[in-house]
């Protein structure tokens, strides 16, 4: 049954990360750390692949790495290892959905034609409609307001 336990911890961590990411986006990235997030909200006048915003991948790698290290090095803390796995999986999902699918930084796949993919695309589009730090909407990525899933009336 241990495998089930570890699988559950991993899954719970992936889900929890959506909330952590939402909080971090709303209160840190649109707060104190706006200096790193700002260029993600502005038109790209500077040529180049990377944004300052990409620093957040490194920021989120820290709790993940810490979980791996403590989980494998400290006796009794092995379940923490799977929290690290969950954070990594979320990071990968975030990268694939936010950076590849929504922002098309890599042309790996085009518009996905499902109600869910269209809904989260619409929600993130609403988030990007604002170029300022204040009064943002829709900070989540995978869990967004149901209104974004409703079909627009013709
Ligand atoms: Zn933002
Ligand atoms: Zn974005």
Q: Could you explain the architecture of this structure?
A:
With 154 residues, the protein is mainly alpha-helical. It has a domain at 2-108. Helix content is 63%, strand content 0%. The chain contains five helices and no strands. It has helices at residues 2-32, 34-41, 55-73, 78-102, 115-128. Helix 1 crosses helix 2 and helix 3 packs antiparallel against helix 4. One zinc ion binds next to helix 5. It comes from Saprospira grandis (strain Lewin). One of its GO terms (molecular function) is beta-carotene 3-hydroxylase activity. Belongs to the sterol desaturase family. Keywords: Carotenoid biosynthesis, Membrane, Oxidoreductase, Transmembrane, Transmembrane helix. Its EC number is 1.14.13.-.
Small molecules (ligands, ions, cofactors) in the structure:
zinc ion
How large, in whole angstroms, is the Cα Rg? 17 Å
The main sheet comes to: none
Q: What sort of overall outline do the alpha carbons produce when their principal axes are compared?
A: globular
Contiguous runs where pLDDT drops below 50 for at least 5 residues: none
Order of helices and strands: HHHHH
Alpha carbon gap, first and last residue = 52 Å
Helix fraction, binned, reads 55-70%
Please state the average pLDDT score: 93
Number of strands: 0
Number of helix segments?
A: 5
Structural class assignment: mainly alpha
- Strand percentage lies at under 5%
């Amino acid at each position: 049954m241990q495998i089930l336990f570890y699988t559950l911890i991993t899954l719970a961590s992936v889900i929890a990360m959506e909330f952590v990411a939402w909080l971090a986006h709303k209160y840190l990235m649109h707060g104190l750390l706006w200096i790193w997030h700002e260029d993600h909200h502005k038109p790209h006048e500077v040529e180049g692949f990377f944004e300052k915003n990409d620093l957040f991948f490194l920021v989120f790698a820290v709790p993940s790495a810490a979980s791996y290290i403590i989980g494998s090095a400290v006796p009794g803390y092995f379940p923490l290892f799977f929290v690290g796995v969950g954070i990594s999986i979320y990071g990968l999902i975030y990268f694939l959905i936010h950076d590849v699918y929504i922002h098309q930084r890599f042309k790996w796949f085009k518009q996905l034609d499902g109600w869910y993919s269209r809904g989260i695309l619409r929600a993130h589009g609403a988030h990007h409609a604002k170029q300022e730090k204040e009064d943002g909407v829709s900070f989540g990525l995978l869990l967004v307001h149901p209104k974004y899933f409703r079909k627009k009336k013709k």
